[in-house]
Structure formats: C-alpha cells, structure tokens
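Tokens for chain A. Residues wanted.
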C-alpha cells in the first residue's frame, strides 16, 4: 500500500521544509507539479513548448532536478548507504523469492530493478523499493496455478498499471482509502505473513496459501515438529523483540532526559 501510494502520488520532492498538515486539511500540489488537466492535455495535444520546458521536465522526472544540484561531498555517505541496503536486499530478495515459490534469482531481479527505475521517476526519498512479503504471498497463488512465467507477466502488468496511474496524476485516489481499510489491510497482511511461516518455524512439511489452510496444516503436522528448527526460530523472534523494546526504552529515556533539562533550565 505504501509503495503504491508513493509511486502514483503526485507529492513533490521539496516538501521537507513545509510544516506538517493538520488533521482533515487537504493537500494542494497544483503549485509544485503540473496539474492532471494541463499534463494530460499537453500529452495528447503534443505541446512541445510545454513538455520540453525544463521546469516541466524537472517536475515530471524528479531526477532531472536533483542530479544538477547533487553535492559531491555526499557521495561517500550515499555509497555506504547503497552498500548497506544492497547487502540487506540480497538475502531478503532470495527469501521472498522462496516464499513466492520461485527460484532465488527472481528475488534478486526484483530487488535491484525497482530501485534503478525509481531513482529516476520517484518523488519520495523516504521509501523502500523492492519485494515484500505480502506481494510474494499473492504472487505464489499465480505461480502455483500457472508457473513462473505468469509471475513475470503479473509484475509487468502491475508495473504498467501503476506507471499509467502516475503518468495521469491519479494519486488523489489514495485519499478515498479510509484509515480503517488501511489498518484492516495491514493487520490481515501481518496475520497472513505470520501464518505462512508456521512450516518453516516448526520444520514440518505440507503447504498452504491462506491463514485457515496454514492453521489446519499446523494441526495435522504438529507431531513432525523439529526441535532445533523451533529453538532457532523462537530464539530469533526473542532477539528481535528484545532489540525492538531496547530501542523503544532508550529513545524514551533520551526524550525524558531532554524534557528534564528543558524544565530545569
């Protein structure tokens, strides 16, 4: 959902200096980016003066603007960030390919092709582009029924639709998705992803593509549980939870110290 919103959204790249919007306040991007009406009319009318204008191109292709103003001093930090993300994306892409029922190389393709495209057309810098668990699970249904070729076709058609939505400035459609729908989707995705890991967590066989099927498969094959697989999986979960809570406690302590200093000073 967040990737979809960022890819099709008409949010400009220079909003970092603007104050946060209050609840219920509408966002107007007409002054920063070309409006849907003017863009579509120029596109079909073939208005060369408008479409070849540097300002128009910079607003349509954000990379045309930030490349000219790039600071060479930031290249070291960007290289370090790129290596960090790349080293994380490699095992993550392989794992999601396995979840989708595909060979590992498909996950690597999905991991690096998306960022190469988004670096030119993307309008939001605070987003992670690449394969996700919920998309891998949804792709698995097509792979199981039709084979790996349909996964490639599905990715192409989905990307084409999202590209057209962004081209015609249809990001406003996200405003019609209410918060309960978003929360429901996120919760359902979390439950589906967690249930799909029962087989790997307990080390038994069987297959399932939905929550109910995963629970039934868990009951049927519970006697086949492998002890060391379960110990390793549970230990990993405990370490992740402890790390998360330690970060929350440390940030809370820092905030409390700052508040005390301000009140005393």
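Reply:
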């Amino acid at each position: 959902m967040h990737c979809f919103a960022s890819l099709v959204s008409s949010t400009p790249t220079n909003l970092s200096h603007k104050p946060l919007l209050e609840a219920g306040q509408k966002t107007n991007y007409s002054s920063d980016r070309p409006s849907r009406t003017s863009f579509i009319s120029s596109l079909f009318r073939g208005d060369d003066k408008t479409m070849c204008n540097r300002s128009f191109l910079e607003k349509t292709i954000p990379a045309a603007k930030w490349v000219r103003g790039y600071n060479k001093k930031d290249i070291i930090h960007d290289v370090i960030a790129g290596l960090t993300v790349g080293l994380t994306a490699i095992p993550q892409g392989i794992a999601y390919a396995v979840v989708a029922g595909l060979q590992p190389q498909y996950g690597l393709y999905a991991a690096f092709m998306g960022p190469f495209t988004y670096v030119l057309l993307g309008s939001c810098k605070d987003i992670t582009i690449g394969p996700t668990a919920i998309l891998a699970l949804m792709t698995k249904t097509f792979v199981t029924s039709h084979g790996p070729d349909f996964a490639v076709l599905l990715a192409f058609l989905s990307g084409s639709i999202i590209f057209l939505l962004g081209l015609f400035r249809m990001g406003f459609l996200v405003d019609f998705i209410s918060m309960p729908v978003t929360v429901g989707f996120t919760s359902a995705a979390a439950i589906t992803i967690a249930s799909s890991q029962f087989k790997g967590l307990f080390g038994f066989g069987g297959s399932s593509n939905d929550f109910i099927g995963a629970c039934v498969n868990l009951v049927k094959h519970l006697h086949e549980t492998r002890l060391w697989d379960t110990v390793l999986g549970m230990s990993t979960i405990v370490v992740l939870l402890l790390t998360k809570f330690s970060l929350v406690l440390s940030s809370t302590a820092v905030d409390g110290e700052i508040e005390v200093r301000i009140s005393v000073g």
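Confidence is low (pLDDT under 50) at residues 1-32, 259-265. The CA atoms of residues 100 and 140 lie 4 Å apart.
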